[in-house]
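Quick one, T. Sequence first:
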Amino acid sequence: MSKRLQRKFLRFLGAFSALVIAVAMTAPDAGAAAAKKHHAAHKSSAHHKKAAVASGKKHRKGRVAAKAGPVRQAVITVKPHEDAPDFDFQPRIQEAQALAAKQPVLPGDMVVRGNDLASFNWVLVVGEKTGPLTVIRMDEQGRNDQRFIVTWPVNNYLNTKFSVADAAHPAGGLIVFAQRRPVRAKGGWEEAVYTAYSAELDTQKMQDAGLDYLRTLEHLAYNRINDHDVRSRVAPTKTVAEQIPRDMVLRLMITEHVDPLHMKYVGIEQCVHEVLITIAANRDKAYSYARSSAGALGLPQFMESSYHMVRDNYPNARLEPDFNRGMTNLHNAVLASTLLLDLELTEMPKSMLKQVTESSAHFAAFLAAGYNRNPVKVVKTYLKTKSMTGGSAPFENKMYVRIQAWVGDFLSREYSRT
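Structure tokens:
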């Protein structure tokens, strides 16, 4: 897409976003109902296990924040990232997370009534770039007995961005290296430790660390496929590793966590940075608490029915039998995502498969569209409109395919990734 067309599209998105926000403010229940409808089960006349993509529930939900509760609002980043190429915050973050985790759970830290969280306390670990770390225990309004002034624009659960000030830092120069608060877990609630993105953590070394970690997960998945000779369902003479481009998996893991509304304000490059920093800061726990209202979980935002479908179709891959453990094990989660992309291709007529795979851009568009939407419907859309997202394709799906292309272009340009 040219820069001129991209600007026009973003202006359109801005108008659309304003309408969405206005509707959400006046009718929140309607939005929840629409989300449930959007993730209703699909049906198809296709046969055998390869048809499970169509006959099961939608395999994943749209991008969500790491949270447990209402759909998050867009948070505007107004402070530019530090972009310091010479500082790696990872050791400091690990120290802060360990400090937050070992704090005792006191009365009032997590008050549950029935299945609902009635009240809770936040634990923050803050400090400067170097030097001692300080633990702040505060209530939901930020009140604490340590004379810290803690503010935040919106409660975004474990992704909440805090400003912390004290007498020595009246302008709020302290960095939140870790936070702890209750999150919904299977069977109840549990305390979770996480590090949210902040502009202060956004350095070149942290961005590189996040991308390197994603690449490691990608390499582990593809090595597992090759080591266990996991064959493609659409091209049995090839392994899945030979059938699915490596860069596709990496760009979709990032795209899953790019919020279009947020992107309107900060741009695609900043959104990619935020995902990479989150991954660098949390590593194996990155997006572990990202659960949608429909049940999509983790970094790849998988639905449980789709996970078991993939596991049944690729037994040689030896995916983790338990869905929740499988999604919080990022090596396993990325492997499952790679296999799902291959399974999508079984829904394409052979003539269409040949035509689409001849163009890397068309191939990427199909894989992305199918990952975000029922691939059977993507095929029907393409046969009717000669576009993966033409005609009456959902707006979310159109945006998703565009965003994954922008993510791919950015990674290729900034990190020499093709």
